[in-house]
Design brief:
Distance between the termini of chain B: 31 Å
Distance between the termini of chain C: 31 Å
Number of helices of chain C: 12
Strand order of the largest sheet of chain B: 6-7-8-3-9-10-12-11
Oligomer: heterotrimer
Strand content of chain C: under 5%
Radius of gyration of chain B: 21 Å
Number of strands of chain C: 0
Strand content of chain B: 15-25%
Chains: A mainly alpha, B alpha/beta, C mainly alpha
Shape of chain B: globular
CATH class of the largest domain in chain B: Alpha Beta
CATH topology of the largest domain in chain B: Rossmann fold
Structural class of chain C: mainly alpha
Helix content of chain C: 55-70%
CATH superfamily of the largest domain in chain B: P-loop containing nucleotide triphosphate hydrolases
Structural class of chain B: alpha/beta
Helix content of chain B: 25-40%
CATH topology of chain C: MetI-like fold
CATH architecture of chain C: Orthogonal Bundle
């Protein structure tokens, strides 16, 4: 177990380092190179030269890379062109807001999806199963931001039941009830997106497990159906679902980014798009690296959970597969 | 005559498929007396496993069902029972072991836990008592240092060990009937013998009746009191083990016996094979189901299906040859 | 759905192998054509492709033609089937011209991604060793970065040109295909016929192209089809955020972004482009699923349930 964890952690660190390399190369491959990215377009040519030298942009690439990496590790993410603000000050406040939105939708969809998937696995091709399959098809094919717009038009504009956008109403910052009202629509959009996949995973994973020999053994032991499904099958069925949850994280974050833009939610996604239109490259790169970091941590947690649930991993037999 | 512990009467089972109803067994009748071992022998596809699943009523979960016939267990018809009632019988009065022991155990629970679960369910034992009994059972089936082994997971054990665990689990509640479906097929030859010895020993000690499913005549010879030979979903011969081995009456049984290496073909060089292959039960030939492969086929075999005909010692066979006076067999 | 009923049969019920089995593609088409969802998808996608190709003749107006006399006309107005937008442009014409961009992006991205993914997967799976390790770590890296963010970052750095978008979406979408091809190659390269080909002196690339790729073609095609839908969604998302297709070009995502500013005045405008995306992606996915079911050789045989017969 320990050995497995150490190996997985080392692997994660390696992937993280590679991500910084890719991002670094990206900056230097850009037309105009890093000067265009790091220097404000408003500087005079002489001032630009001076600042480039200041930032060390004339030094060899590897030196620059390790310098930049060192800054990253120290938490120094650079400064914006506009107002010369520290990039960290822009990013950190948005992280929590995104987490609230994503976390709520993610939990909600899991709470709905796992029981629903299990139920469907015991009644293959029944009404509930067909409904889930329909939702999955639509959910995969529908642009989430469009669904958001439609919900806004109906629930906020036409019926005036829920707030149109933002996280708080004016002057109500900190009011939990107000926050919840604002969360209903974006969380619904995200939940539908996540739900579609999870019901399918839970169902197919459960079906596969129910087909296993040890389930027949459990029945041959005289166990009741409920005990067979919930004690013997469920734990085995959750093992692959956990892995998928980890691997799906990047898709979830991207979905959250779009939804944030539709609902004007002050999270990382909205900030990212705003900064993109203002060409604040330092902010974009720092955010990309940060999100990749979260994703890798998420994958690592999923793998640890996997090891906790599946005793076979403790021997390290299964661990080697690339994440 | 002692009472029959299990009596199967005209059991016809099948599965619903895309192409409609597919029969798996055809009017199978057999009986096991208390303390006896009955072996069902046949090639794969002959319906022997389906028969065992039908007796346990596990066939319901595999997409199949009992179409007609009775399964009398101590006079009680299991075929007519509800699954909730079957749950009380399965694992306590009648239990089952399977072909592949590695996949028959749940990978996420310790083996001790899996044995103890049976005891908790059927005997309503406390966790502690059930665990202690589970360790006892592991010792009984010959697992060394059972206290430690009980805490291990199936993947930490060898195939033979796993099969011992499965046997311990099946016998934990002192069942009257143990159904073993190819219990040695997935194991190494040396381990096979150990498991068979263990079954024979436990049968003597616990006075359990055994229904053993196998494709291996050698296994049957070693452990059986009676043998039933199945072919294409039906029993074609059934009788006491010595009689079936010494005076087989059905040409299929004769073929099976002659194709065992080491019994007859030892010096003969070439091994005997039965020509052709087992037909699908839905595409059965007319008359006798064995006639296309039978070396003694007669005109009558094409027209009429032979019933199981018993001789004076209860040795039954479904073959018209029996009616023809034999010359030196 | 014809193949939804769980096929159950007894193991050992062997079918008589009398005639020579027909080829994969022929039986595939037979199964595909019997799948109503897949066929409906195929018809709808064909219709969209035809209208995109013939946009010039089908669309009643120039999609960029501004007519400030008649802004925000409701659907069913005289001469404007679906009304006009805030600048008086004909919505129906804009939808048709948008389908050009959306479909072009969808199919091109799928092709680019399949070419890259197949190459990397093939090299990785066939040669193995350190080549494989490096490529697979690279796949890990790409998978850990949320692609929407990466796409926005790259588009911001390089500029939002239409062809850039196709290349960028392709360059960031190949990982699934690479994994798939690598997996297939890992299995196939151990096969006897590969050994045999090597023994008679067929070159590595000869083996990869002639023997291995041909055997991996069915899953690649299925994957490519499913990728078309994903690419259309990505394009619409980027365009919606203002980082993809730029005016005066038009795409469904851009139309949605446009309609949002006028959702108080004319909410129905937001419905059409989204519906188009939904219908096209749904159809493409149905085709993909239909292909998968039709080309999967394992599905040809009845899958016996575990624990029977024997």
């Amino acid at each position: 177990m320990t050995e497995y964890l150490i190996r997985r952690t080392l692997q994660s660190i390696l992937v993280m380092l590679l991500i910084t390399v890719v991002t670094f190369i990206l900056i230097h491959a850009a037309p105009g190179g890093p000067k265009q990215i790091y220097l404000s377009p408003n500087l005079s040519p002489e001032a630009a030269e001076r600042q480039a030298a200041n930032l060390g942009l004339d030094r060899p690439l590897p030196v620059q890379y390790f310098d930049w990496l060192g800054d990253l590790l120290r938490g120094d993410l650079g400064y914006t062109f506009k107002n010369n603000l520290p990039v960290g000050d822009l990013i950190w406040p948005t992280v929590g807001n995104t987490m609230i939105l994503m976390g709520a939708a993610w939990l909600l969809s899991l709470i709905i999806a796992i029981p629903w998937g299990i139920y469907n696995s015991t009644r293959e091709y029944g009404f509930s199963d067909q409904t889930a399959s329909f939702i999955a098809y639509v959910g995969f094919a529908m642009p989430s931001f469009w669904f958001g717009i439609i919900l806004q038009e109906l629930f906020a504009l036409k019926w005036d039941l829920l707030p149109l956008s933002d996280m708080w109403s004016m002057g109500k910052e900190g009011d939990i009830g107000d926050l919840l009202m604002h969360m209903v629509l974006p969380v619904s959009v995200l939940t539908l997106g996540f739900l579609a996949g999870y019901v399918k995973y839970a169902r197919s994973s459960m079906l596969e497990v129910l087909d296993q020999d040890y389930i027949r053994t459990a029945r041959a032991k005289g166990l009741g159906e409920r005990r067979v499904v919930f004690r013997h099958a469920l734990r085995n069925a959750l093992i692959p679902v956990i892995t998928v949850l980890g691997l799906d994280l990047p898709i979830l974050v991207a979905g959250a980014a779009l939804t944030e833009n539709v609902f004007n939610w002050p999270g990382m996604g909205r900030m990212f798009v705003q900064m993109a239109t203002q060409r604040e490259y330092s902010v974009l790169m720092a955010t990309t690296i940060l999100i990749a970091f979260f994703v890798i941590i998420g994958n690592l947690i999923a793998d640890i959970l996997y090891a906790v649930v599946d005793p076979r991993v403790k021997l390290g037999r299964k661990g080697g597969a690339s994440a | 005559m002692t009472q029959n512990l299990l009596e199967v009467r005209n059991l016809t089972t099948g599965f619903h498929t895309e192409r409609g109803f597919v029969k798996a067994t055809d009017r199978v009748s057999l009986a096991i007396q208390e303390g006896q071992t009955l072996c069902i022998v046949g090639e794969s596809g002959s319906g022997k496993s389906v028969t065992s699943l039908a007796i346990m009523r596990l066939i319901d979960y595999a997409g199949g069902f009992i179409e007609s016939g009775e399964v009398l267990f101590k006079g009680d018809n299991l075929a007519a029972k509800k699954q909730t009632d079957m749950m009380r019988i399965r694992g306590s009065k009648m239990s089952m072991i399977f072909q592949d022991p590695m996949s028959a155990l749940n990978p996420v629970f310790s083996v001790g836990d899996q044995i103890a679960e049976t005891l908790r369910i059927h005997k309503h034992m406390s966790d502690k008592a059930a665990w202690n009994k589970a360790v006892e059972m592991l010792r009984l089936v010959g697992i060394p240092s059972p206290e430690i082994r009980a805490r291990q997971y199936p993947h930490e054990m060898s195939g033979g060990m796993c099969q011992r665990v499965v046997i311990a689990m099946a016998l934990a509640c002192d069942p009257e009937l143990l159904i073993a479906d190819e219990p040695t097929t997935a194991l190494d030859v040396t381990v096979q013998a150990q498991i068979l010895d263990l079954l024979a020993k436990l049968k003597r000690e616990l006075n359990t009746s055994i229904l053993l499913i196998t494709h291996d005549m050698g296994v049957a010879a070693e452990i059986a009191d009676r043998i039933a030979v199945m072919y294409a979903g039906a029993i074609v011969e059934e009788g006491a083990v010595d009689e079936v081995f010494e005076q087989p009456r059905h040409p299929y049984t004769i073929g099976l016996l002659r194709s065992i290496p080491g019994i007859e073909g030892e010096r003969g060089g070439e091994l005997y094979t039965i020509k052709g292959s087992i037909p699908s039960i839905n595409e059965l030939p007319s008359g006798c189901r064995f006639h296309p492969r039978c070396p003694h086929v007669m005109e009558r075999c094409l027209r009429e299906e032979p019933p199981l005909m018993a001789d004076e010692r209860g040795h039954r066979a479904a073959c018209w040859l029996d009616e023809v006076p034999k010359e030196g067999a | 759905m014809s193949d939804t009923a769980a096929p159950v049969t007894v193991k050992g019920v062997k079918r008589a192998v009398s005639e020579r089995p027909p080829g994969l593609w022929k039986t595939g088409w037979k199964k595909f054509s019997r799948n109503p969802f897949a066929m409906a998808g195929l018809v709808i996608v064909t219709l969209f492709v035809l209208s995109a190709v013939g946009a010039r003749w089908i669309a009643p107006y120039d999609p960029a033609q501004i007519d400030m006399m008649f802004p925000n006309l409701p659907a069913g107005s005289e001469g404007h089937l679906l009304g006009t937008d805030e600048l008086g442009r004909d919505i129906f014409s804009r939808l048709i011209y948008s389908s050009q961009i959306s479909l072009l992006v969808g199919f091109s991205v799928a092709i680019v991604a399949v070419v890259i993914g197949t190459f990397i997967g093939a090299v990785s799976g066939y040669f193995g060793g350190w080549v494989d390790t490096i490529f697979m770590r690279f796949v890990d890296v790409m998978n850990a970065i949320p692609l929407l963010f990466l796409n926005i970052l790259i588009l911001t750095i390089f500029g939002s040109k239409f062809w850039y978008m196709i290349l960028i979406l392709g360059f960031t979408g190949w990982m699934g295909v690479a994994r798939l091809v690598r997996g297939t190659f890992l299995q196939l390269r151990e096969m006897q016929y590969v050994e045999a080909a090597r023994a008679i002196g067929v070159s590595d690339w000869g083996i990869i192209i002639r023997h291995l790729l041909r055997n991996a073609s069915a899953p690649i095609i299925v994957n490519a089809t499913l990728m078309v839908g994903g690419a259309i969604l990505s394009e619409s998302a980027l365009s919606y955020l203002g980082l993809g297709v730029q005016p005066p070009d038009t795409s469904w995502g851009l139309m949605l972004s446009n309609s949002r500013e006028f959702m108080l005045v004319d909410p129905i405008q937001a419905v059409y482009p989204g519906l188009c995306i939904l219908i096209v992606v749904l159809s493409v996915n149905f085709i993909g699923d239909g292909l998968r079911d039709a080309l999967d050789p394992r599905k040809k045989a009845f899958k016996p349930r575990k624990g029977l017969g024997k």
